[in-house]
Design goal:
Layout: H1 2-15, H2 24-35, E1 40-45, E2 53-57, H3 60-72, H4 76-83, E3 87-89, H5 100-109, E4 115-123, E5 126-135, H6 143-160, H7 179-200, H8 204-218, H9 222-230
Antiparallel strand pairs: 1-2, 1-5, 3-4, 4-5
Helix pairs in contact: 1-2, 1-6, 2-6, 3-5, 7-8, 7-9, 8-9
Organism: Streptomyces apricus
InterPro entries: ANTAR, GAF-like_dom_sf
Domain ANTAR: 177-230
Length: 236
């Protein structure tokens, strides 16, 4: 069993060994999806904080799962990042979950998603973010695949750490691809949070909560609320 787990992690490491830094997050998503029995992958940093940063999403479904969790501030990724342990949400089409807002949004918007599991991205006892996987199957990955996922998450961290300084410019802005998606789901959001905080004289946390409430109330994504605040067309 250990050999199986190690081979999955090794395959991820090898797949991104010669990848250019700007393509690294997207290459990691692709390779994780190839070595684990899942239908989609997303990676994020600082997942359970207002400074959350989307690294990559393998497809529109994975991206929407990330958007939902960032909007409602709950879900498998948020719990995995905050608790530092793998988390699974199964049978999302029919079963109540520990995350009522997340569960309701997924059941309504993403009926193709049967299960979501998330693994913390950890180094030296600190959680950097989360790796999210979803399946169309209601039960999600089995026990051996979950154990493999833990080692794959470790491989993702090992691949990201050497590139951390290159992934951001001198001002802390992200430099990875696709640039429009990264801006819409990270840097633009935090610019909009600053605008709202200044306008209402509130903290960053309160400004983000106001934006989340607006997104939830109107059924828009947080990226769309952000675009409206900044007067920009939303990224497509």
């Amino acid at each position: 069993m250990t050999e199986r787990h190690s081979s999955a992690a090794w395959a991820v490491t090898e797949a991104v060994r010669r990848v250019e830094t700007g393509e690294l997050p997207r290459a990691l998503c692709r390779s994780v999806g190839e070595v684990l029995p899942v239908d989609g992958v997303a990676l994020s940093l600082l997942t359970d904080t207002p400074a959350r940063q989307l690294l990559c999403a393998s497809d529109d479904t994975a991206l929407r799962l990330e958007e939902i969790q960032f909007t409602v501030a709950e879900g498998p990724c948020v719990t995995a990042a905050s608790e530092g342990l793998p988390v699974v949400g199964r049978n999302l089409r029919h079963r109540a979950t520990p995350w009522p807002f997340f569960g309701a949004a997924v059941a309504e918007e993403l009926p193709q998603v049967g299960a979501v599991c998330a693994f913390p991205l950890r180094v030296a006892g600190q959680t950097l973010g989360a790796m999210e996987l979803f399946t169309h199957d209601d039960e999600g990955p089995d026990g051996p695949s979950m154990r493999a996922g833990v080692q794959v998450a470790d491989a993702v961290v090992r691949a990201l750490l050497p590139a951390r300084t290159e992934l951001f410019d001198a001002f802390g802005s992200p430099r990875w691809q696709p640039a429009d998606v990264v801006r819409a789901h990270w840097s633009s959001t935090h610019q909009a949070v600053g605008v709202v905080a200044a306008t209402y004289g509130t903290s960053v946390e309160s400004a983000l909560a106001r934006m989340r409430a607006e997104a939830f109330r109107t059924g828009r994504t947080l990226a769309e609320v952000t675009a409206a605040i900044l007067g920009r067309p939303p990224a497509t």
